[in-house]
Design a protein that fits this description.
The chain has a single domain (7-125), classed as SCP2 sterol-binding domain (Nonspecific Lipid-transfer Protein, Chain A, 2-Layer Sandwich). The protein contains 6 helices and 5 strands; from the N terminus they run ααββββααβαα. The protein has helices spanning 7-20, 27-30, 71-79, 83-91, 101-109, 114-125, and strands at residues 33-41, 44-51, 54-57, 65-70, 96-99. It has a 5-stranded mixed sheet with strand order 3-2-1-4-5.
Length: 127
């Protein structure tokens, strides 16, 4: 099994993403680029980005917002799209945000497409 957030995991996510094709994202999600620093992993802190609804390894220079969160919150919020968990994590300090907060506000009302949900279910299955 591939270790969550390892190089091999990111390689598998890239394969799944390429196979998924067009994610048919709503404009609110298609234009968002967020950097994430995931703490408490087997590999220390892991830097990644969400760019146009897709997960990328490493930080993206075009992101105006950076979030720091742990692996459990990453799975709940970004892979399961649990917005209640997002609000709870933010209010309890489990998500720390830097930069343009309007990007986060846009995420509150944006709904993932069926294609993105299907892709992230596959990604969650290898997490």
């Amino acid at each position: 099994m591939t270790s969550f957030l390892s190089d091999a995991w990111f390689d598998k996510v890239a394969e799944l993403t390429a196979a998924a094709g067009d994610l048919n994202l709503p404009p609110a999600l298609a234009g968002i680029v967020l950097n994430l620093v995931v703490t408490g992993t087997e590999n220390g802190n892991v830097e990644m980005a969400i760019n146009g609804g897709k997960l990328e390894k490493g930080l993206n220079a075009n992101a105006s917002t950076k979030l720091t969160l742990n692996t459990d919150v990453l799975k709940k919020v970004f892979l399961e799209f649990d917005m209640n968990a997002a609000m709870q994590a933010f209010m309890s300090g489990q998500i720390k945000a830097e930069g343009d907060m309007t990007k986060l506000m846009a995420l509150q009302t944006a709904r993932p497409s069926a294609e993105q949900k299907a892709l992230f279910q596959q990604v969650l299955a290898i997490a």
